[in-house]
Each structure stands twice: as structure tokens, then as C-alpha cells.
């Protein structure tokens, strides 16, 4: 009997070890083709289904926990400084390469939260047809959509959670008009990064809440869709000046100047290698943004060297009995049908007689906890307030003109 127990424990231990080893593929040296990242709500149903199948398989293998653990462990080095954009672009590409090991044709789509900025709960992405919305009352577990009843094993064993900022609602996000005002005004990388990170980026994390407002937020697939949108915004700003594909400025977390030759934390690759989405190893563009000209790209002369990353689950590597990858909340969750992606595409409507509301300010305590800039967040709050006020003034003028025409 003892012999069989030992064999069983050995099998279980090997399974745990295999799932806790987090794959770290190298970037390819060149691009065999340039692929396109698209808005997730524009994907044909079959492409959406393929993406969902792939991320479910990544979850089954324990890789979502690995991404959450990795992001959490070096969070202080990649937020609140000029590593933010480049590092997260590399992080998303890491995720995408692992997706393509399962299905070579799948790309990370982006979530354009600017479409439903005034009422995010009406966004199809937050419905059961896509990735579900708020967690259920009591335990905040996500129980609908492609991640319904997912478990997670980092930082503790639990369900995947979301807890909307205002109970049943997230509050408003940023309108794209405000984002483009930032694009128009920011002339340096440091200015643009700070304004986006402390404005449009942060409000989405706070609005969804639960796991999404923590530094292990990559346990939620929506993290990658949200950051693909942030990456797209950066790519659009870069496309306005070819110099932005070769140059960065500002400082890292230790107040050391960041240049194109600075190394990204963990990956030990030069920041410059991540400055063009269609550069060697990245090999993608967004559906409505031009590719970087080849002559404008940073030329790297360095090859990264790093060891594989072992994701630490449950906060300790000294408790192997607890290191099993979290099971789904129900045994049949992994067999749930893949959403078709079309049945809950909600029409975006508002009462035309009501003014839009700007996003509410992010609290200083929340900002500091995420190593964000309280003063910059206040400036961005003023900017978005002013933009929403202009939108409301224009809508009032349109109503007056429409009423006069009707008379």
C-alpha cells in the first residue's frame, strides 16, 4: 500500500512541477510575416472561438498564474517609470508567442474600451458572449463568459475575481477624444507614458476591480486585451514621429536614465528592440495604424541571455503540497461551450437629453499602492473633465439645432 501511495505522490509532484515551470520562449530574430491585431468585437465568430480555446488551454496548463506571478514580482520596476510601455509590449508578445505554440494563427486582440466609455457595463466584451462582467455577490467570482468559474493559484488558491468599482457598475472610462488630446500635447516619451499610465490606463484597472486592480492582474485574460489597447495607443502616438521608433527618455525605478540601450527587467533585452511593433521578434501591426518604416527602427547589437522562470504559486516554493494549479470551480467548466461572440452585441445608446459623466478621480491611496503618480493623475482628471464638458456642450448645441430644424 505504501508503495502505491509513493508512486501516486510522485506522479502528482511531477504534474505540479510541469505546470509551475513557466515557458520563456525567445523572440525570433526576424519576421516571416507581419500579423494584424484587431478589435476583439470585430473578430469573426470562428476567430473569437479560436482565441478563447487557446486562452482556456493556457489556463489549464497553469500559464495564466505564471504571468500573474511574474508581473507581480517585478511590478515596482515596470510601473511609474519609462519601462512601462516597452516592458508591457514585450510581456504581451511573450503571451502571444505562447498562444501561437498552441494555435499558430491566433493573435492578441485589443479591447477598445473607448467605444463604451460612458457605460462600460454595456460593452459586449463584459458580457457572457465574451469574457464576462462583474463577479457574483459575496465572493466576487467570475461565473459567466469565456472565463466562467476559472480558478487561479496565484497568489493564493481562489477563483478569478472582479469587483466593479461601484457595485453594479465600473464608472466611466476615458473617451478616445481625451486620449487623443494627450497624444496631441505630449512631445516626449516620459510625458506621454505618465499621462496615459496615470489616466486612461489606471481607470480601467480600478473600474473592474477584484484581481484586475492588483499587480497579479494578468491571471485575467482581460489584462492582455486592455494592455493591447494601451500598446495600440502608444503605437499611434509613435506613428506621428519616426524618431519615436528609436528614442526614449525619462528614468527607470532607480532614477537611472532610460535610453534605447537600457535593458528591460527580467527579459534583459534592450528597450529599443520593443519600440516598433513590426520590428524583429514582434512582427505585428494594429488594424488602423501604419507600420514603422524599416529605416526608422532601432538596430540592436545585443542578444539577450536569461534563465527560465519558475512561477511561484501560493506565495511559497516551500509548500509543494499546495502548489497544484487551481482547479476550475466546477468540474465541467472547461467543457462549457465557446461563446459564438454575436448574441450579446449590445447597441450603444444613451438618453440624448442627459449629459455624459467623466470618470471619477482615482484615490491617492489606490494610486500610491500601484506606484502611480498622484499629481499626474490629478492633472489627467482635469483634462478628461474638460474633454467631457466640451462633448456635452457640443451635444447640447446639436440638440438645439435639431429642435430648431424640427420647428
TrEMBL record:
<dbReference type="InterPro" id="IPR050316">
    <property type="entry name" value="Tyrosinase/Hemocyanin"/>
</dbReference>
<dbReference type="GO" id="GO:0016491">
    <property type="term" value="F:oxidoreductase activity"/>
</dbReference>
<feature type="domain" description="Tyrosinase copper-binding">
    <location>
        <begin position="79"/>
        <end position="96"/>
    </location>
</feature>
<dbReference type="InterPro" id="IPR008922">
    <property type="entry name" value="Di-copper_centre_dom_sf"/>
</dbReference>
<feature type="signal peptide">
    <location>
        <begin position="1"/>
        <end position="18"/>
    </location>
</feature>
<dbReference type="Pfam" id="PF00264">
    <property type="entry name" value="Tyrosinase"/>
</dbReference>
<keyword id="KW-0479">Metal-binding</keyword>
<keyword id="KW-0186">Copper</keyword>
<dbReference type="GO" id="GO:0046872">
    <property type="term" value="F:metal ion binding"/>
</dbReference>
<keyword id="KW-0732">Signal</keyword>
<protein>
    <recommendedName>
        <fullName>Tyrosinase copper-binding domain-containing protein</fullName>
    </recommendedName>
</protein>
<dbReference type="InterPro" id="IPR002227">
    <property type="entry name" value="Tyrosinase_Cu-bd"/>
</dbReference>
Amino acid at each position: 500500500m505504501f508503495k502505491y501511495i509513493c508512486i501516486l505522490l510522485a506522479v502528482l509532484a511531477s504534474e505540479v512541477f510541469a505546470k509551475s515551470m513557466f515557458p520563456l520562449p525567445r523572440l525570433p530574430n526576424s519576421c516571416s510575416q507581419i500579423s494584424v491585431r484587431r478589435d476583439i468585437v470585430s473578430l469573426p465568430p470562428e476567430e473569437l472561438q479560436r482565441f478563447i480555446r487557446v486562452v482556456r488551454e493556457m489556463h489549464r496548463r497553469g500559464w495564466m498564474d505564471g504571468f500573474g506571478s511574474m508581473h507581480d514580482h517585478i511590478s515596482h520596476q515596470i510601473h511609474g517609470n519609462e519601462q512601462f510601455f516597452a516592458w508591457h509590449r514585450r510581456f504581451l508578445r511573450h503571451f502571444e508567442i505562447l498562444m501561437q505554440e498552441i494555435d499558430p494563427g491566433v493573435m492578441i486582440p485589443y479591447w477598445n474600451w473607448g467605444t463604451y466609455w460612458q457605460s462600460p457595463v454595456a460593452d459586449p466584451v463584459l458580457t457572457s458572449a465574451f469574457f464576462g462582467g462583474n463577479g457574483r455577490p459575496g465572493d466576487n467570482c467570475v461565473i459567466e463568459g469565456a472565463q466562467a468559474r476559472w480558478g487561479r493559484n496565484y497568489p493564493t488558491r481562489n477563483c478569478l475575481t472582479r469587483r466593479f468599482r461601484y457595485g453594479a457598475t465600473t464608472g466611466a472610462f476615458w473617451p478616445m477624444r481625451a486620449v487623443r488630446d494627450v497624444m496631441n500635447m505630449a512631445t516626449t516619451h516620459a510625458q506621454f507614458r505618465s499621462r496615459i499610465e496615470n489616466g486612461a490606463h489606471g481607470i480601467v484597472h480600478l473600474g473592474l476591480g477584484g484581481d484586475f486592480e492588483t499587480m497579479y492582474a494578468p491571471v485575467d485574460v482581460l489584462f492582455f486585451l486592455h494592455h493591447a489597447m494601451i500598446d495600440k495607443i502608444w503605437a499611434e502616438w509613435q506613428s506621428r514621429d519616426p524618431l519615436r521608433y528609436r528614442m526614449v527618455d525619462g528614468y527607470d525605478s532607480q532614477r537611472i536614465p532610460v535610453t534605447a540601450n537600457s535593458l528591460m527587467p527580467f527579459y534583459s533585452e534592450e528597450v529599443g528592440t520593443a519600440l516598433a511593433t513590426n520590428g524583429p521578434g514582434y512582427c505585428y501591426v494594429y488594424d488602423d495604424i501604419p507600420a514603422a518604416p524599416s529605416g526608422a527602427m532601432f538596430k540592436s547589437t545585443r542578444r539577450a541571455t536569461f534563465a527560465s522562470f519558475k512561477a511561484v504559486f501560493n506565495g511559497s516554493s516551500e509548500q509543494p503540497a499546495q502548489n497544484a494549479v487551481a482547479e476550475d470551480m466546477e468540474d465541467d467548466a472547461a467543457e462549457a461551450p465557446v461563446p459564438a461572440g454575436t448574441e450579446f452585441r449590445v447597441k450603444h445608446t444613451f438618453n440624448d437629453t442627459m449629459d455624459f459623466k467623466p470618470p471619477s478621480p482615482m484615490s491617492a491611496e489606490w494610486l500610491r499602492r500601484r506606484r502611480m503618480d498622484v499629481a499626474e493623475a490629478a492633472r489627467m482628471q482635469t483634462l478628461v473633465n474638460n474633454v467631457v464638458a466640451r462633448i456635452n456642450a457640443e451635444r447640447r448645441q446639436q440638440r438645439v439645432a435639431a429642435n430648431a430644424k424640427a420647428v
